[in-house]
Request: fold
Amino acid sequence: MSPDYSIQLNYLELMMDLPWNEFGEDNFDLARAAEVLDRDHFGLEKVKERIIEYLAVLKLKGDMKSPILCLAGPPGVGKTSLGKSIAEAINRKYIRISLGGLRDESEIRGHRKTYIGAMPGRIIQSMRKARQANPVFVLDEIDKVLGMNVQGDPSAALLEVLDPEQNSTFYDNYLETTFDLSKVLFIATANNLGNIHPALLDRMEVIDIAGYLIEEKLNIAKKHLIPRQLKEHGMEENGLQFSDEILERIISDYTRESGVRNLEKLVAKMIRKRASQYVRDGKLEKEIKISDLSKTYGAPIFQKERSLDNSVPGVAIGLAWTATGGEILFVESVINPGKNGLTMTGNLGDVMKESATIAFEYLKTYAKEFGIDDTIFENTHIHLHVPEGATPKDGPSAGITILTSMISAFTKKTVRPKIAMTGEITLRGKLLPVGGIKEKILAAKRSGIFDILLSSENKKDVEDIKEHFIEGMTFHYFSEMKETMGFTEVV
Reply:
């Protein structure tokens, strides 16, 4: 009847159940591992390559500290499901715990046995369920863990778990002894690295997963989404036919996302429509037509890319990165008599406003080199506008586009047609590299622009993109802004 009896019994049962020296046998067949990863996920080459490297080293050495991988990317790109595929590929148990909204440090480290209702932390509990000391452990939404609060700091408690140098002696308060986590393959997932504690981020090997391109979404829909939805809706044997043209229309007109979640919902909606028709009439039209899209989904949600008309002086085409992929961006400048200097409109963020100010000051300093009378600024007012004012815009990458637009307005020369540009500018006249190159290039390609102006330092980013995605495109690299002006302007 002693209350200590149940406490001691639970403690001893936990100690007996934990896999102290029980290891699952890894499957070192690299060809099979690659086959499983390719079967379940299209693309994601960097992640697959890292897993194959890990398996190869493990096979040669027989024992090594497992890496702590952090898959970072937008929602719906397959970060969580990738953990399951990795576990199957290397023949290990799969464990997943969601850290979203976790605010209690005891959830990680457990409670001391002196408390009534004390329990071990979720790490130790999961190891008990796995019955293996080397599972694949997915820590989902690690960027949603709350920081310091009245219940401790769970992100600080994770530091020991996710440090390959320390986690061989992980201490759980309930266990009151150390447990070896060094053989566990931890995979963390996150949408925004900026929300993760810097010390925690430093302990992980970050693998960026970019949003999918239209071509990649097309393949994912054909290989994974459509077969899965046909099976789930009992239409597997009837085999509806989605042509490439239909899928491209759905992707471009009805979804604007990095992942494929909305695409799968729309595919499911079309299949449900056909399923109800089949049950009601006993007939089934297998081929999906263009006219079916508006009947099922309504009018297209997203308009086609805007007309690429920059035949007027003062208009330049830039490239922007968004969480849903790349987009083209128009920058317009007009000059009027006045003494107010520079006005900016178009819902611009602070960094983008700074880029406009830098461009204007640089232009005033080097006006003569561009054939502009430097006295004109005394009685001239310039208005800079980026259309679609309802959409917030920020970042330094529009710097070169803003400068080109201003010079075009002052010189009355139009910018070369069908050329898009991206790059940060400095007051010294340097063109600096920017991010999101892959998404920006694909946005230009969708819009029928095949000439891209970039910083010389962005050449390595272009070389990382598969050749068939950039086929037919020409890239022009510059490191000085003066060089770009001679290239972009025409009379």
Notes: The longest helix spans residues 261-281.
